[in-house]
Amino acid sequence: MSFNTFQANSLMGEITIPGDKSISHRAVILSSIAEGKSYIKGFLESDDCLHTIKIFQALGVEIEKIEPGYYMVEGVGLNGLREASNVLYCGNSGTTARLLAGLLAAQDFYSVLTGDNFLNVRPMDRIIKPLEKMGARIWSREDKYLPLSIKGSPLKGIQYELPVASAQLKSALLLAGLYAQEELKIIEPELSRDHTERMLQGFGVDLVKEGKEITLSKKGEIKLDAQEIEVPGDLSSAAFFIAAALITPDSDIVIRNVGINPTRDGFLRIIQEMGARIEFFNIREKAGEPLADIRVMSSNLKAVSIEGELIPLLIDELPLLAVLAARAEGRTIIRDAAELRVKESDRISATVEGLRKLGVRAEEMPDGMVIEGPARLQGGVEIESYYDHRLVMSFIVAGLISREPFKIKDVEAVNVSFPDFNKILKKLCYR
Ligand code: S3P
């Protein structure tokens, strides 16, 4: 489905952001293998997270929707999952596929994981290799792609240095590690989002994190106790409104309930370096995760360099930062971000292609991009989103201030992470 962008003269008002995608997945996964009834509030009802729910239902877990965003999960314990009678469909969700592969590798039954055409060309060898070192039996297309066939087996503990800073890989290993006979030690090249570690600790698992080293101890028996989890709002979703307010003149908005976990907050750090007028208040904690309310005002932005250890902390926000860079004074350089090429789409080439169509001087690099600003964004063109939810939303934000509206293809991809995106954005827009 194609969609015409809409413009705004200013953004004003107050909004609340739906639940965090990464945390919603983890809440269902850990509640399912915990003992007793867990309750999840603020669960993100987007396609990706609903696939995770359906998969656990297929694995024999009772999950009940009490009201919108509020779910009860009747945990079956570490060894209570049952073989599903059909393939497990992950849709577009890399988090579902990778985390489930780790968990299913340790179950005493057979599973097949598959996804949509976009997910089925994303690399899975990064999880297959270390899981095989632990003793997992996994078959895959071309030894690296979904569908995966997994014949669960007893696993052993390993020490493993991750070749990429990936929270999905780390989490797959931690879930497998719950079942391993020996201790599991993981060393990250750089810090990546730590929601799995925080939540495992919240469920009572003896997990120690020292800098970039994580140890899952086998001193006592591992058992997860049911929890009540309140999912904070997703910073990666809030980022679109923050960016929209920064680049739209005369804007002043408040966003409530935004997760500000320090392994996710690279976007907030970079926009402050770019000159963003932003204030944080009501800083508090929910489910072991920090959150805040945020006020953002239109700002004059300047170019920055985005690289190194910061990259994993803002990886999902890079297409949006590229849109901001187009409005910033000077040359923005993004490096060390080759991972962007294996996200929901090749986000380096897709972002540069879209920005260029809008008249921005942007260049691709193997591991990043260079963007010259400030550009007056043009319109009247059609932009490919490659069915990538974050590209759709980044370009809708760009459309707010483009000279003319433009078309974006496959906008229904927003349902992957943020079904109400346009509704909430329109609430803030004044024309
Ligand atoms: C996620 C981890 C990141 C991120 C993705 C969600 C997670 O992927 O890009 O949107 O929930 O663990 P990688 O682990 O591939 O970096």
List keywords for this structure.
single chain, about 425 residues, alpha/beta, UDP-n-acetylglucosamine1-carboxyvinyl-transferase, Chain, 2 domains, five-stranded mixed sheet, binds shikimate-3-phosphate
In short:
With 431 residues, this protein is of the alpha/beta class. It is built from twelve helices and 24 strands.
Question: How would you describe this protein?
Answer:
By secondary structure, the chain is α/β, with parallel strands linked by helices. The chain folds into two domains: 216 residues, Enolpyruvate transferase domain (UDP-n-acetylglucosamine1-carboxyvinyl-transferase, Chain, Alpha-beta prism), CATH 3.65.10.10; 199 residues, Alpha-beta prism (UDP-n-acetylglucosamine1-carboxyvinyl-transferase, Chain), CATH 3.65.10. It is 29% helix and 27% strand. The protein contains twelve helices and 24 strands. Helix 9 links the parallel strand 18 and strand 19. Helix 1 packs parallel to helix 6, helix 3 runs parallel beside helix 5 and helix 7 runs parallel beside helix 9. The radius of gyration is 21 Å and the shape is globular. 52% of the residues are buried. The mean pLDDT is 97. Bound molecules: shikimate-3-phosphate (S3P). The site of shikimate-3-phosphate has 11 residues, from helix 5.
